User: What shape does this take?
Amino acid sequence: MSRPTTYAQALNTALRDSLTQDESVLVFGEDVGALGGVFRITDGLTRDFGEERCFDTPLAEAGITGFAIGLCMQGFRPVIEMQFDAFGYPAFEQVVSHVAKMRNRTRGQLTLPMVLRYPYAGGIGGVEHHCDSSEGYYVHTPGLHVVSPSTPADAYSLLREAIASDDPVVFLEPKSLYWSKAELELPTRTEPFGRAAVRRVGSDVTLITYGPQVPNALRAAEIAAAEEDWDVEVVDLRTLVPFDDETVAASVRKTGRAVVLAEAQGFAGMGAEVAARVSERCFHSLAAPVLRVSGLDMPYPPPILEHTYLPGVDRILDTIARLQWDDEPDLTHEAAGTQAVHA
Amino acid sequence: MSDITSLLPCPQPVRFLDPDGSTTEHDPGTAATLEARGYSIPAEEDLLAVWRGMVIGRRFDTQATALTKQGRLAVYPSSRGQDACQVAPVLALGEQDWLFPTYRDSMALVTRGIDPVEALTLLRGDWHCGYDPVATRTAPQCTPLSTQIVHAAGAADGMRRRGTGGVALGFIGDGATSEGDFHEGLNFAAVFDAPLVVLVQNNKYAISVPLAKQSKAPALAYKGVGYGVRSEQVDGNDPAAMLSVMRSAYAHARAGHGPVLVEAHTYRMEAHTNADDATRYRTSEEVDDWTGQDPVVRLQAYLVARGALDEARIEEVREQAEAFAADVRTRMHAEPKVDPMALFEHVYAEPTPQLREQAEMVRAEIAGSAHAAHPVPETEEATR
Assistant: This one.
């Protein structure tokens, strides 16, 4: 029976179902035991599955990650929690030098079926070091799958797929979406890794985004339809690696315009990669340059100022407005940058 | 909380054999201390196996150094002088146990029974790891310092969970005990009572940086005590002491009493690698002093004096070592067979679409028609 389910509940249920179905699954990290995780994603797992299946570890992210690697060598499937994205950096060497490379360096003989869960990105009023968007580091590292679900259904389905995957998966959970809800019946299965989803069908411009910015994109699309008569198609990437060129390119070829929306700082980020891929594949279909909307190129700001930093509906609409709607190149503005330009 | 006295290492490194091969049994104080710590000199039969392993391992090591000079290896970090640390701990492992070696532990890999050409694959440069880690229960040789110690802790804990009775042995050098992952690995293993044994081969230098600039610890073994880890220090050039101490460590870990840290005092006789110039940072007098403490000479003298070893057997094993080296030489002189397309095979279980495109590009480049290939598929004709 379908019922209102939060994103956090969907993740919790996915962990429960994986723990039930596969005895090799282990859940561990800082505070995931009795507390249930600082975001309560592992709530009740130690109580229901025992200390041997869901347990607290010493407070050391490289240790947690390396320990998971060793457990993989003994046939376990660890799901580790990094508590906050910016707390994951001590584990960076383990992730980049070992997690991502083990299959390759051993020619497929030693594989690491582990999931690294990162409460991810901002918009929750967190103080310093609690709101980074660190996907750029991981998508740049071959050997990792990188996933960021934007709906409770995807949160459930993609986490189940991540745990079942024989490759390591960086699983980015937007903190701002943990309490978002959907009518849902669990278990559910959505499209697999590597498939983007068209969240809103439109004909004038494709807005490509993922994770925490999907709700923003949909809000902007509704306002654009109501106030500007722009019919915006919203594509949710769902998995950043593997990347769905096919769905993205098909949408842009149809609409002829593209904006890439990502919450992370923009320079050399995921948004740049998407913009380049769209330009390479859809050049002859484009009526305007591919534009990016992103956070700002600065350290994540203090909570009271985070809404200046975060791409909001206004910044999205302003960027869409710069897409040469009159079919005349607008030479009065620089195309680069994310600064709002009022058309 | 553990009783701290049960964790403390022996005030002096455990030693059974002096450099000339005579035993330390003549010193009643030493003998009583070793007995109280549960150590006894191993049986002749076991020491003969260690001696043979060292003779073959040493010959393998000098052969690998020679191959580097001939350009057959990209680089070779020799473990000559550390032979007792390389051979005794590995021979004392059981089949179910796991080994976590570093780049300097090729002699240990050969002792483990890994094909020498597979052991040298990393250093020849035809792949990163030449052997099957699962089949050999030996992790890939680890280059990022101390990162393998947390893997070893996790693997040890996995064996505890599975009830296999196995232990994990992690090798590490003196310099790498300054790295954070060493400490995190010891701490994790202690907290989970994981059957991990970490052997620090303190060969006195991290490339050029001497131990005095690395640590203020009275001995590196003391670094375990703060984590509640039983700790020990041993003369790493005394094969009898190495075998006895490592056996005791494995028994402790296997019995569920938690991890053990062992520091072996030894010396790297060669430079860091063939690319290094050790004369810039250490004296020939120092090297000469350690030449007089050679572990192979030491054990051989002991066994000969005991009548356990004679010239005929020495010659027989020497010939086995020569044959081993000759086989390595012959096979390493053959050009490695490499397939560029193999680069794409194991990045993921299933390659991403993007990787498939790049594979096609490289395939075309190899076929000599690079001009016809491009990683980006042709775009459709303009639709507007």
Summary: The two ends of chain B are 75 Å apart (CA to CA). The CA atoms of residues 121 and 130 of chain B lie 5 Å apart. The first strand of chain B starts at residue 98 and ends at 100. Chain B touches chain A through 51 residues (CB under 8 Å).
